[in-house]
Amino acid sequence: MKLIDSHAHLTSEEFDQDRLFILRDLSNFFVEAVVNPGTNLANSRANIALAKDFDNFYAQVGIHPSDVDQMGENDLEEIERLAKEGAVAIGEIGLDYYWTTETKALQKEVFIKQLEMARRLDLPVVIHNRDATEDIMEILKDYTDLKVQIHCFSTDEKTLETYMDWGFYISLGGVVTYKDGLNEKQAAALVPLDRLMLETDSPYLTPKTFRGLRNDPRRIIEVAQKIAEIRGQKLSTIAKWTSKNAKEFFNL
């Protein structure tokens, strides 16, 4: 059995002391590969550099919505250049109105520019959405030609049905193990196996068993086990399909 963590922030500072050890240790936890989103230009550069050194690490590049107000004038041009060096997706991109709504207009502008970039480069996109579902869907309805992963899905069944109609993929993480993760549990039950992926979003969203500790990709089996339980399916089935989907989506 092999698992793929389709979304982990291993280049964040929380892993500065043991990043390389974790990457070398993944196979001991049935983890075949990790896909790492970019959040800003510096982080995207680090992703590309690390991907050149580790065969089980894959880089995304992008500007996270919470980082748009820190962008330099040429950051998007540099992101596009980096993408051509071997990025497997443009991400994570999207909208986040949880922390502030003052940057709404800029977030939308940068989001659309990166969607257009993905279209030019024929790359998939990984979408971040927090408290911005209506605007996210209004924008994405014009980009259903792209391969889209909705990272850390947390909205309602109606939204899920629309995403399925548009051909999008859904990625679920540690929240599916939480008592209050009702939308995530519902999605775990409803998403077709051929559209489902696993993620840790580490160092965040640690599964219930380890809550309070830093999360890392070696915890992905906790997510897989919970989804298998919810669906009434074998863990090996969840592993097989979610890994297959990640490989095809990101062209690993």
From TrEMBL:
It comes from the Bacteria. It is an enzyme of class 3 (hydrolase). Its EC number is 3.1.-.-. InterPro entries: DNase_TatD-rel_CS, Metal_Hydrolase, TatD-like, TatD/YcfH-like. The keyword Acetylation does not apply. GO terms for molecular function: hydrolase activity. Transmembrane segments: none annotated. Keywords: Hydrolase, Metal-binding. This is TatD family hydrolase. It comes from Anaerococcus kampingae.
